[in-house]
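Input.
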Amino acid sequence: MKHKKWFIFNILSSVLFLVVSIFLWFRHVDGSGAIMNTKLRLLNLAIWCIFFTIMVLVEFIIIRISKHVNQ
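Output.
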């Protein structure tokens, strides 16, 4: 049952990652009013990927700790 919850969480977070990535790529103006060009789009996606990678690493650490505690 525990693995099913993690699996569902991973699917939802992957869908969220894709939706936000598509939004960041296709928007024409950001929140500050700057017109988006290719460099800014790539920078936004790089920042989003770094944030998401940190979240995945935290999840991995939590899984490793929970497996270690349950043994």
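The chain has a mean pLDDT of 89.
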